[in-house]
Amino acid sequence: MSSLAIRLRSPLLSLSLIALTLAACDQGQGGHGPAGFGGPVPVGVVTAQPESFPVTLEYTAQTQGSREVEVRARVAGILEKRNYVEGGLVKAGQSLFTIDPAPFEAAAARAAADVAAAEARHAQAKREAGRLQPLMTSKAISQKEFDDAASTESIAAADLQAARARLKEAHLNLGWTRVASPITGTASRSLKSEGSLVSGPDVLLTTVSQTNPIHVLFGIPDNERLKLHQEADAGRLQLPADGRFTATLKLADGSTYAQTGHTDFADVRVSRDTGTSEGRAEVPNPNGLLQPGQFVRVMLSGAVRAGVFRIPQRAVLEGPKGKFVFVVGQESKADIRPVTTDEWDGRDVVVTSGLTAGEQVIVDGVLKLGPGAPVQVTPAGSAPAVDAKKGN
């Protein structure tokens, strides 16, 4: 045989050897290529059944006292004493500070004396008018004299009323030298020390926070809020009947707070800075574990997504046009179904659109399939496992 003939046949021999090698490998894998050459691909399936799936919404949140008040003095004076332990629990009506009462005691004494003098003047004017009344009847005095006496009595009565009002004001100011807590809660540190001049309500002395129950504030992104409303209007999402979600808190260490609460407020305004609307939940805090300003994660439950499908996550593939699954179509061939997914539930994923009830979704053997590939349904989990890293 000539050397030219040998050179011509060498590429053909190489191609034949490659074809034989590929065929041998294909037979070693069960005789099923990526598109199903060599026979139907054994696949495991699950039947798509619509169900109602509970929805959990999770947001970053921060705690805040359910009632937070600023404690200020109503009168000006020298701060004489602090009457509480900083950071401790105080009761409603408990004295927190004492303003030096001496100047106010003196003012109250002066007002009391003014009332006594006004009462004496009023009594004298009343007696004088009483004496003139019979003289006026007998025409012994003129009408002007009687009218002057009656006016003097009226003026004395008005002076007495004004003096009594000043006495009441003096007593109020004296009482306000005792600066009391308006609510029961935890008092923060004192912002003024004893001996400081307090000019009045413009000076903040301390704050008191009621932490049982405690409020949890969180922001709902506007796009998510709109999505929830759209799905609720379309009937795909059922919100709680009373509009109150159950709130569960996850603490900074990853643990779940033992007490659960409920949402009680949702703001209609959207923040221009964050693009979120504020929501609030109220959570019991009997042991004081939660402190104002603490960062937590709040999980809201109570909504239900109706008519969705829950399938194993490994059945969902990602393509250039988005997520899809293979289903067993006519003549036992693999068909592609583009799907939309949402929440996760363990190893399952929730499919909100793209499937219909009763379809057989291919779970095992999906990486050996192509559109239109013949398949053979086997019990789920019995199809050959596929190593995604090796592509086999």
Which terms would index this structure?
21 strands, four-stranded antiparallel sheet, about 25% helix, disordered N terminus, OB fold (Dihydrolipoamide Acetyltransferase, E2P), elongated, six-stranded antiparallel β-barrel, Elongation Factor Tu (Ef-tu), domain 3, alpha+beta, single chain, about 400 residues
Named CATH topology of the domain at 69-208: OB fold (Dihydrolipoamide Acetyltransferase, E2P)
How are the strands of the biggest sheet laid out side by side?
Answer: 2-9-13-12-11-14
CATH architecture assignment of the domain at 69-208: Beta Barrel
Low-pLDDT stretches: 1-36, 381-392
Per CATH, the superfamily of the domain at 69-208 is RNA polymerase II/Efflux pump adaptor protein, barrel-sandwich hybrid domain
Radius of gyration: 43 Å
Mean pLDDT: 85
From the spread of the alpha carbons, the general shape counts as elongated
Give the helix/strand class: alpha+beta
Highest-level CATH class of the domain at 69-208: Mainly Beta
| Helical stretch tally | 4
Model description:
- The structure is a single chain.
- With 392 residues, the chain is of the alpha+beta class.
- Among the domains are: 55-65 and 212-306, Efflux pump adaptor protein, beta barrel domain (Elongation Factor Tu (Ef-tu), domain 3), CATH 2.40.30.170; 69-208, RNA polymerase II/Efflux pump adaptor protein, barrel-sandwich hybrid domain (OB fold (Dihydrolipoamide Acetyltransferase, E2P), Beta Barrel), CATH 2.40.50.
- It has 4 helices and 21 strands.
- The protein has helices spanning 3-28, 102-137, 143-175, 222-233; strands at residues 41-47, 51-72, 77-82, 89-90, 95-99, 178-180, 185-187, 197-198, 204-221, 237-238, 246-250, 261-266, 276-283, 295-312, 317-319, 322-328, 334-338, 340-345, 348-353, 360-364, 375-378.
- The chain has a 6-stranded antiparallel beta barrel with strand order 2-9-13-12-11-14. Strands 6-5-3-8 form a 4-stranded antiparallel sheet, with no helix packed on it. Strands 20-1-21 form a 3-stranded mixed sheet, with no helix packed on it.
- A hairpin with a 5-residue loop joins strand 16 (322-328) and strand 17.
- Helix 2 (102-137) packs antiparallel against helix 3 (143-175).
- The relative contact order is 0.19.
- Mean pLDDT is 85; it is low at 1-36 and 381-392.
